[in-house]
């Protein structure tokens, strides 16, 4: 445990790094932009269909889950590329597992989207 004193200034600076990470993610990661587009569509559809508060919670939760999974996947991939620039079977496993996390989150988001939107659009 660090013996440094708590500093509001340092806490505020940490937000700067986090926002820079978001910027880097959306500027440099193609999948991040795809997920952002899907999130904008889902949020727009949510406003248009006037979904309930609980439905908003579900939609925003799965959007966040996909973003978190994709950001962690991107970070793991970048780190793995530094650790092992050449192909390595164990690094491939790590990258595949990180990508699988994104896939699971995306499948959940699609399922929640169907549950929330399909009845309002077609029933």
Indicate the topology.
Blueprint: H1 8-28, H2 30-49, H3 53-83, H4 89-122
Would you mind describing this structure in some detail?
This protein has 123 residues and is mainly α. The protein has a single domain, classed as Orthogonal Bundle (Helix Hairpins). Helices cover 86% and strands 0% of the residues. It is built from 4 helices and no strands. It is globular and about 55 Å long. The N and C termini lie far apart (57 Å).
What sort of overall outline do the alpha carbons produce when their principal axes are compared?
A: globular
**SSE order, one letter for each helix or strand:** HHHH
* Portion in beta strands: under 5%
Helix content: over 70%
CATH architecture: Orthogonal Bundle
* Secondary-structure class: mainly alpha
Total of domains:
1
Keywords: ATP-binding, Cell membrane, Kinase, Lipid biosynthesis, Lipid metabolism, Magnesium, Membrane, Metal-binding, Nucleotide-binding, Phospholipid biosynthesis, Phospholipid metabolism, Transferase, Transmembrane, Transmembrane helix
GO molecular function: ATP binding; kinase activity; metal ion binding
Active site: 70
Binding site for ATP: 17, 77, 95-96
């Amino acid at each position: 445990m660090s013996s440094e004193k708590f500093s509001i200034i340092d806490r505020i600076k940490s937000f700067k790094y986090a926002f820079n990470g978001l910027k880097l993610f959306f500027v440099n990661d193609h999948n991040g932009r795809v997920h952002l587009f899907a999130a904008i569509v889902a949020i727009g559809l949510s406003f248009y269909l006037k979904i309930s508060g609980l439905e908003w919670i579900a939609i925003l939760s799965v959007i966040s889950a996909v973003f978190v999974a994709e950001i962690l996947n991107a970070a793991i991939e970048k780190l793995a590329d530094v650790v092992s620039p050449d192909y390595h079977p164990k690094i491939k496993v790590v990258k595949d597992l990180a990508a699988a996390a994104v896939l699971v989150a995306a499948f959940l988001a699609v399922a929640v989207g169907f549950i929330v939107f399909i009845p309002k659009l077609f029933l």
